[in-house]
Known about the structure:
The structure holds two protein chains of two kinds. By secondary structure, chain A is mostly helical. Chain A has a domain at 26-135 and 157-221: Transmembrane di-heme cytochromes, Chain C (Fumarate Reductase Cytochrome B subunit, Up-down Bundle), CATH 1.20.950. In chain A, 61% of the residues lie in helices and 2% in strands. Chain A has helices at 25-50, 92-120, 122-127, 133-144, 159-182, 185-190, 193-196, 201-240, 247-254; strands at 54-55, 69-70. The longest helix of chain A has 40 residues, at 201-240. The radius of gyration of chain A is 22 Å and the shape is elongated. By secondary structure, chain B is an alpha+beta fold. Chain B has one domain (64-246): Oxidoreductase, molybdopterin-binding domain (Sulfite Oxidase, Chain A, domain 2, Alpha-Beta Complex), CATH 3.90.420. Chain B is built from six helices and ten strands; from the N terminus they run αααββαββαββαββββ. In chain B, the strands form two sheets. In chain B, strands 2-1-10-5-6 form a five-stranded mixed sheet. Chain B is elongated. Chains A and B meet through helix 2, helix 6 and helix 8 of A and helix 2 and strand 4 of B.
Amino acid sequence: MADSVNIPRSSAAEKTTDIPARHSLLVRITHWITALSFFALLLSGGEIVLSHPRFYWGEIGDDLTRPLFQLPVPASRDLVPTGYHFVLPDQNGWSRALHFQAAWLLVFTGVLYLIWGLVSGHFRRSLFPNASPARWRAALVEHLRFRRPDPSQPQSYNPLQRLAYLIVIFILFPLAVWSGLALSQTFDAICPFAVQSLGGFQSARTIHFFDAIALTVFLVVHVVMIARAGFLRLTRAMITGHLDAEPDNLTQQDQP
Amino acid sequence: MKNLSRRRFLTAGIVTAAGAAGLYGAERIANHYGLIPPDAATWYGPGETLDYDVQRIFGRHALAREFSPSQITHPPFRNEIGPKLPATYYQMEQNGFRDWQLKIDGLVSNPASFSLSDIHSFPARSQITMLSCEEGWSYIGEWTGVPLSHLLDLAGAKPNATYVVYRSIQPDYWWDSLDIFEARHPQTLIAYAVNGSDLTLRTGAPLRMRVPRQLGYKSVKFINHITVTDDIKRFGDGLGSSDPTYGYAWFAGE
Lengths: 256, 254
């Protein structure tokens, strides 16, 4: 990884305090609000699914319709044929309220982030692909060998990271909002395109579910990668904005 | 902390005061235009209120999607009917609901009580719409009935009415209300038939509310009493419906 193309500064020779902030204040705030909203949405969404853990395609689907698939979990309604001999308590009321509240928080935060990302050049600088095919290949090979990220480039996301973040920011989250809106009868009255573009009401629900699964997979991989690269160090960077130099870098600096 | 000068402190104070005043003003304006749902004071508050406001501002008159006859769900779905119905219900069912009366009172110039044959004589509307449940299932059916708006006109609902309360034969367990816009919406029906046949016990005979722009739980079955009001707080717990008592939001358009 010697060909450090487009990397603004090589920080190996610099002291910690001279390194520009890894994450701007807006990125840090929106990151944590999004994390909080996502946990609330995941929890309440999972709870809502329990009242009807069957999924369909098209406009309609009920207990008498053959499902596309059914989750092997008990349900919170006794009409649903689950194969379990018990019914979970109904928690849909507060779950729905929490889901909408968290969704609004996520949407406001997301819109703020998108506007700022475009205006400030954050997307162009930090997210849009900047790598040559050779670097792509190198990053992929490195990744598949479970090597740790290149410590000489702490200021830049690698190509795979950029791709993952772009998919989450520009595909998965917008699709979650769009398919969620399509599940509102009044919204579909205002904008029938929302539900029609997704192939029907039940299709929208199924897409919403798989989108949530995809975001959860991203979250797990995201946390695992951070754990591999130094959980406390990177988490501290996402809170304070500054990335401390790695301990082994420090020792290298101490030995001239 | 050297940056926290007096000017900064004053600015923060002014911004906070302006924010609080702004919120208070927004609440007053929203209230004036009927943008605060009756259960907004519960912890469903902000999210539900925003949903309600966006949908009322952008789609007060939007029509629910209607489908073609080939899209009607077969076999038709019948949801459970909730708690035990009173014995009087079954007596009336035995004689074909001849004694069923739909009372309409409150802020009306001519309080009235309609029999089923009265209701069948009014101009009917049939529409193929989706009924979707907050649980996640949905089905499509063709409901026939009289627009609630027509009954409001017949009874002479007063212009200052803001909500229409409707009760089932289980008035304590299941009653609900619509704001005047949803009540006046052309697709809001007092339905008596589904897919060409009279309603049955499982589908809410003899009369059920059909509110296709909201979730199924607003489409209360066994309707026998409608009250027009300008003060929704007087009913039940003051939350606009029995739904909040059972954990559900009054507004079910999401």
